[in-house]
């Protein structure tokens, strides 16, 4: 304990230290370069991919000026034919009023089946209603009833709040402004010198000053911002918790491993995590209770909470057993070589909708964190119900690890037994 770091007498030790840390640094750099671009890339060129966000325009005023004007504006925006338009646009499709159905059918398409991200509805007979309101001086005329657009924020709050609303507000504001200018100019030219018509306008000024406006209907509001802690960030902590437990288990099982038959040791490896994940997942789930997450969004509050716990347990099994399997091969010392890619590969597909990402990010449909996130959204906000599919995928990952872990254990244990005999 009396040497300096650059003391010549410890040169071999210093060289070994520098070699080890240099190698470790190089390995970490390689992991960062190999994995982090996957996460960065999930946010890259979002607006370029925005046409993948399907939007319907339902024209219930077909064949009339207002309906056809707005419909054509949406179609033109999809093809970049209306200048100016923002960078990026939604993928607008014209859907007939008959095919779109009632307002309830539209809610089903947007929030229940999630077949479409946005539906813009042009009010039935909007042009005729405006003409009648102007002629009669109807003060009850409501411009905001002309254009109504529906969306589900809870489907993905990042896409809806930062992409969809920005693009919708721009194109509808621009369209309504241009349409109102044309409507006002044409009508004023038509009634020039007509004192009766001018008096009617005085009673209903909204029919000339902005007769077309929009109403936004958020079918599934993202009412609990704290939910991001359990949908995404919490999943990272879930992986870390299982990693810590696996490291502890790796040390603890070595106490008894030399004294156990192989069959008994394999049962210990497979059953112990599944037992201990129960209290761990319950403790993790209970953290959300004081923060008043809406567990009654789809079911009863108690039912929603216990279903959430069930999915946390499945996710912990899917994520943790994979770590248990890989830690067998890599040993606790080098388990980070799997942990970092495992976290990044899962998180990269759980934030941004696949429609806004490059095609290969769709691998996320089969990954644990994405399916946990989708299940949590369903429980909290009553979004599209794929709980059976989500549970099946999580169980599939757990099942895969319950196959690979014994296989890896047999390989490593046979090596340990040969080494013990040799000694």
TrEMBL record:
InterPro entries xref list: DUF3533, MNNG_permease-like
Keyword list, A-Z: Membrane, Transmembrane, Transmembrane helix
Transmembrane domains' residue ranges: 20-40, 222-245, 266-287, 299-322, 334-361, 391-411
Domain DUF3533: 25-402
Stated name of the protein: DUF3533 domain-containing protein
Provenance organism: Calocera cornea HHB12733
PANTHER family with a match to the protein in the record: NITROSOGUANIDINE RESISTANCE PROTEIN SNG1 (PTHR34814)
Domain of life according to the entry: Eukaryota
Keyword Acetylation: no
Any single GO CC term annotated in Swiss-Prot or TrEMBL for this entry: membrane
């Amino acid at each position: 304990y009396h040497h300096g770091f650059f003391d010549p007498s410890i040169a071999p030790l210093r060289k070994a230290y520098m070699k080890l840390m240099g190698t470790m640094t190089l390995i970490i750099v390689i992991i960062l370069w190999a994995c982090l671009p996957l996460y960065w890339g999930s946010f890259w060129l979002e607006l370029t991919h925005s046409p993948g966000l399907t939007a319907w325009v339902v024209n219930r005023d077909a064949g009339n000026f207002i309906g056809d004007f707005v419909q054509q504006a949406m179609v033109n925006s999809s093809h970049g034919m209306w200048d100016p338009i923002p960078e990026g646009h939604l993928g607008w499709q014209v859907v007939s009023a008959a095919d779109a159905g009632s307002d309830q059918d539209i809610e089903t398409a947007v929030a229940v089946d999630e077949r479409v991200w946005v539906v813009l509805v042009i009010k039935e007979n909007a042009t005729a209603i405006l003409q009648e309101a102007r002629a009669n001086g109807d003060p009850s005329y409501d411009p905001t009833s002309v254009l109504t657009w529906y969306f589900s924020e809870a489907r993905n709050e990042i896409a809806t709040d930062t992409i969809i609303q920005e693009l919708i507000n721009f194109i509808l504001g621009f369209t309504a402004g241009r349409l109102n200018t044309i409507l006002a100019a044409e009508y004023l030219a038509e009634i020039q010198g007509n004192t009766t018509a001018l008096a009617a306008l005085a009673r209903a000024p909204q029919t000339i000053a902005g007769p077309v406006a929009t109403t936004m209907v958020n079918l599934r509001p993202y009412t609990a911002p704290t939910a991001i802690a359990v949908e995404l960030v919490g999943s990272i902590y879930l992986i870390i918790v299982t990693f810590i437990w696996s490291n502890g288990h790796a040390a603890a099982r070595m106490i008894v491993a030399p004294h156990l038959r192989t069959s008994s040791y394999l049962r210990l490896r497979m059953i112990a995590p599944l037992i201990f994940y129960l209290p761990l997942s319950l403790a993790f789930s209970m953290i959300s209770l004081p923060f008043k997450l809406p567990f009654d969004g789809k079911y009863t509050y108690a039912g929603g909470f216990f279903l959430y716990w069930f999915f946390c347990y499945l996710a912990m099994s899917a994520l943790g057993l994979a770590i248990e399997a890989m830690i067998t091969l890599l040993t606790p010392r080098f388990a980070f070589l799997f942990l970092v890619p495992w976290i990044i590969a899962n998180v990269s597909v759980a934030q941004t909708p696949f429609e806004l990402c490059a095609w290969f990010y769709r691998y996320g449909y089969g990954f644990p964190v994405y399916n946990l996130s989708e299940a949590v959204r369903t429980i909290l906000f009553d979004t599209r119900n794929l709980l059976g599919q989500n549970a099946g995928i999580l169980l599939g990952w757990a099942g895969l690890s319950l196959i690979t872990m014994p296989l890896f254990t047999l390989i490593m244990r046979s090596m340990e037994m040969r080494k013990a005999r040799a000694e």
